[in-house]
What we know:
The structure is a homodimer.
Chain A: H1 10-24, E1 38-42, E2 45-55, H2 56-59, H3 66-83, E3 87-97, H4 102-118, E4 123-130, E5 135-145, E6 160-163, H5 169-179, H6 187-194, H7 200-209, E7 214-217, H8 222-233, E8 236-240, H9 250-257, H10 261-267, E9 274-278, H11 280-287, E10 293-299, E11 304-307, E12 313-316
Parallel strand pairs in A: 3-4, 8-11
Antiparallel strand pairs in A: 1-2, 2-5, 3-5, 6-9, 6-10, 7-9, 8-10, 11-12
Helix pairs in contact in A: 3-4, 3-7, 5-6, 5-9, 9-10
Amino acid sequence: MHDRISSLGEKKLISRIISRARSVFGSSEVMGLGDDAALIDAGEEFLVLTSDLLLETRHFPDPERPRDMGWKTVTVNMSDLAAMGSRPEGFILSVALPDLELEFFDSLMDGVIEACCHYQAPLIGGDTNEADEIILSGTAIGRAEKDMVLMKSGARPGDLVAVTGPLGVGAAGTELILSGRDTGGFENAVERSLRPVARIEEGLILAESGLVSSATDITDGLVSELGELMDASGTGMRIYEDRLPLGREVPEIASILGRDPLELALYYGEDFELVFTAPPTGMEELSDMMELHVIGEVTVGGGIEMVDKDGVTYKLHVRGYEHLSPG
Amino acid sequence: MHDRISSLGEKKLISRIISRARSVFGSSEVMGLGDDAALIDAGEEFLVLTSDLLLETRHFPDPERPRDMGWKTVTVNMSDLAAMGSRPEGFILSVALPDLELEFFDSLMDGVIEACCHYQAPLIGGDTNEADEIILSGTAIGRAEKDMVLMKSGARPGDLVAVTGPLGVGAAGTELILSGRDTGGFENAVERSLRPVARIEEGLILAESGLVSSATDITDGLVSELGELMDASGTGMRIYEDRLPLGREVPEIASILGRDPLELALYYGEDFELVFTAPPTGMEELSDMMELHVIGEVTVGGGIEMVDKDGVTYKLHVRGYEHLSPG
């Protein structure tokens, strides 16, 4: 009788907010709504704005590493800017904190400032509050030329689908840390989990090339993000299992943990690579400019298909890493 | 040995972050740092950006009224824009939520969208997460002409100090609600507590007049905000008890609660009026354009003095509503 928000799941919850907002505001006012970041008209450019909130108990594999927590808070926001092909311009940090040791607090801030330096996005404002756990809310501000900005919509049947780097590494690292097992020999996966790097340069290359038809970042899992591009573009997608660039260490870590490596690559967030579409000739040009891995193609419709190593085609269910997931 | 952040208090904690950021970034890059909102260069204008985070258990006198919670989340952010004399342009909402009833969630969003409409700031983006309590993080975006923007710095000795409306009403309403007593007859104070209104129009009048030397909003209590203007301007302040425009109902509510009405007006947040300084001739002009109450004057230095009803001068301690307060 009294439905709860978990009965909808995160994506439908967001759609619910978006449709309410669209019913009230003009479509030119809410251009970026539903995309990775919001767009504000600033003359010849767009100001690109995004806000993401991270909680000590839910978003950090190791909450004993405050510097990494600060770094990651900036990175998840910068990754949304990267997904729009936008150049970072500044960062705002709102925190709510328990009564931390000053040394811990300073390390947290060092991580934030270190990341702000890395992304050339000065810390320009903020707010502090008290809370029972560490809550870190970031707002990233960037700029993009109006006709260059990357959106989720625009993929066309026949376009190729590509990712900017290996898949499943952040997921494998995160699961390894959470398992409490020895992480020796897997420093790269651990680093990718604790100190992910947003693909700002790659986003700028993609945007400035003018060759890309749609793009997003893989923070919620590849299949979920393909679903986003598909829904925004009104197309389908077909990907090939043997073209997925699984990270080198992913099979071994998955085996240690008794997990399916493909599941880590397809349905887990934390990769922070970009996934994008471009016509075949454009993709060819782009491959001379940057690392990219073509994993499939855009289809007319009918959801996401995967062709496995034996050539058998099956449908992928779009779930990804859904917070507030049903059931 | 291991100091905690509570040993510093909120203001010193913020100063600590600011001085770290200033040591790394150029001063032109971090113009608004320490002010009510951040400033981003956008040609002839500034983009004005602010982010505030509210928690179910700490910032809402009645967490059973989701629509009011949504409204207030937008308002506290808009109030920072008002303090800069900026026109709202958009709002971004990041939420982390427990598994709410859908009806409660919809009311929360109705409150957000209602407030966005009121302030003419479309909801342009957002993010959702799971959490154990309701966490609402807003980012407000506004615009201001470069030479018009209101800052905390700029007050000069001899300027007058004024506020845009009655003091202590939101505080009295909040304390009355929290006491669990009958609120009958005090609808105005209750409304001011649950559905405060940011002084956007007043901020725009002040900014466009070009007459104002410094300004901020009174979310953390009058004395605390006077301290902010003073510190940023390198001056002192003198205020007169008999000029403070205590809200009509404040003495009666204070008496019911056994509280000092003056304390509610001086040291409690929730008023959402603006406090500002201007030279005497400018203040005269402004008083023809809007409601304002002159409460004192800017002095050369020496902290905040209050002259009481008997003409006795004493020092006010700058504490206001400090989160993370020492001791």
